Structures are given as C-alpha cells and as structure tokens.
Amino acid sequence: MCATPTDPANTARNNGATAERLLYLLKTHGPLKTADLGPMLDITLEATRQQIQKLVDSGLIEGHVMPSAGAGRPSRKWALTATAQARFPDTHSQLTLQLIDSIKLIYGSEGIDKIVSSIEHANTCEYVNACAKVTTLEDKVKVLVGIRDAAGYMASLQAEGENWLLIESHCPICVAAQACQGFCRSELQVFQTALGDSATVERIEHLISGDRRCVYRVSPRRPHP
C-alpha cells in the first residue's frame, strides 16, 4: 500500500501552530522546562526540542538556569523574550501615549484624572450590571474573568482554598498603565465595587511592578459577629 505523501504546506502550518501554542503557554504559565512543555503540547520530547530551538533561533524565547531545590542539578526553563512579549498586542499603544501626553499638556494632571474617572465609571457600570445577574461570589468572579478575557487580558480563574485568584497574563494597555498609574488603581476599585460587600479584593502581583502578570485575590468577607 502506497504511503500518502506529506504536504509541505500542511507541515509548515502545523509547525507554526505548535510554535504559537508554545509561546502562549510560556505567556500564561511563565517559564517552563522542556519536559513540561512536551505533554502540554501533546508532542514528543524530540519534537518539543525542535520547536524550542526554532524559537530560540528566532529570538522569541531564551533559557534561564533555575537553581535546584535539593541536591540535584540546576534545571533550564524557557521564557519569552521582549521580542516575543511584543507579539501580544498592547492596544494602540503609540496613539494612547500621544493622547495622554496631549491631555497632560493641555489640561494638566486634573485632565488625566477626569479621563481615568470617566473610564472607571463606565467600567463600573458594566461590571456591576454583569455581576448582578448571578448570585454566588464564585460566579461573580467568573463573570469578571469573562469580561477581562474578552478585553484581551488573557484572564483566568484559579481556586486558592476558600479564595479565588483572578489572573491576567497579559495587559493590552500596559504602555498606558506605565504612563498613568491611575488606570491600575481604577481597575482594583472597579473589581471591588462589582463584587460588593461580600468580598475583599487585593492585588498580589502587578505587571507594572516587575511581576510577569497581574493577579487579584478575591476573599469572602466574613460577617461581623
């Protein structure tokens, strides 16, 4: 029986899709070892090494030697380079910076504060209305995750005992947030208002502070005896 010839175009597309998945995994999970990536990509260890080498050669990932927790040898983990980080969109970053600079120049810091307050008010209305459609705190957090993920924040939910972690692996307005910290303060307040008095929200990881992502811990608020 004759073997079906391999289509080079299909092979290239599949390799490209695998490479994009690998980049996505490193973006959402942080640095990972080769042995971790293979099962997550559902490909062989050799195929994983080939994909890694291609991305290294392209300047999209780089290896970091991680100290061993015990007596074993240090391990190497792969992480995104700045070039790879730039592949994930920062929405209209250059235009946003120009607008922020122009507002500061014409209206001063008070003008920026008014813009941030206006955005905060609009987001608060949207988030509060969406969360009002469900009853449990967990469902409300899931609603927030859905809104943020749709907005490009690569948001996910993780349980932490009786708490929940709202994880944002990407910030589509990072450049604007770096230029104006008010955007970050606004987000935290919007989350708190949307979830109401039944929960407290704290930011435990912050991209602008040097962390690789933003993480918010949502904790049920215990009623006073």
UniProtKB/TrEMBL annotation:
Gene3D superfamilies: Winged helix-like DNA-binding domain superfamily/Winged helix DNA-binding domain. InterPro entries: WH-like_DNA-bd_sf, WH_DNA-bd_sf. This is Transcriptional regulator. It comes from Pseudomonas lundensis.
